Amino acid sequence: MFTIATGLCALGTSLTNLAIYRGLTGIFAASVMPISLALIGDVFPMEERQQAIGTFMGISFLGQGLSMAIGGTIAYFLNWKGVFIAYAVLSLIPMILLISNYKKLPSEKNPNSEILKPYFRLLSNSKSLFTYLIVLLEGIFIVGSFSYIGSYIAKTYHYNYFKIGMILTAFGVMSVIGGRLSGKLSKKFGQKKVLSAGLLSAAIADTIIFYFGSNIYLLILGVALLGLGFILTHSTLLTRATGFAQKSRGAAMSLVAFCFMGGGGVGTAIGGRIILAYSLNSLFIIYGLALFITLILSNLLIKD
Known about the structure:
Layout: H1 2-9, H2 15-29, H3 32-43, H4 46-77, H5 80-100, H6 117-124, H7 126-157, H8 161-189, H9 191-212, H10 216-242, H11 249-277, H12 280-301
């Protein structure tokens, strides 16, 4: 259904129906991340889980970064509709792989599964509630920052889509590197310190972009640090969440995805207001300060 919805986007003739098709795409894409993370939680023991989650999320966001480079190239040589056509075709690859390997995937059915009660239980527990709060803030300020970096590059350097996409791949590359390291760092220093390091890295990234974004090398450094900060923060929070509801791990993961992506949407919307009221550049220092506050809040609320 994700493949079909992506293909429908190429048929968009107005902002309204394009938004509807993108909404459908989001609905079907939303299932992928929580189910994949729940599967990792089932397969990997806790001591190996953060590295597995970090690797998975790093590859995922490398894909997101590469998609911008690939999409930018297609849009540059063809048009924006060509991007959706190409991605609908590419989406057939994982679909075919999933269908061909479906029976090999471990899957335990819970005959007494409930729809809403697991969510209420998760939100009524302070340990899980505080974790989801930090996930929400992470989504608002990290995804909110990342959403406008492309616009910032276009405004500052007047680069085409291809060059912008290539710069943004620094986020994905550092996500993969950080994902591979997150588990080892967590074992050595503890989850709380890795979480703090991630939020600090993201806050520094926004600060660098605000003050030094006119220097292309420091801008790339800022994008890379944002990717590193994201993966250290998110992999730590996800690993914590996999232990909250072992019998309803899918619910725990879907709540993480909801808070993170919902936060990203809120952060992007708030960012638009900040840009209208102040400037595009000011968004990064405001979100950078907000990430410093989130760092302090996480140290107060989250325990190892």
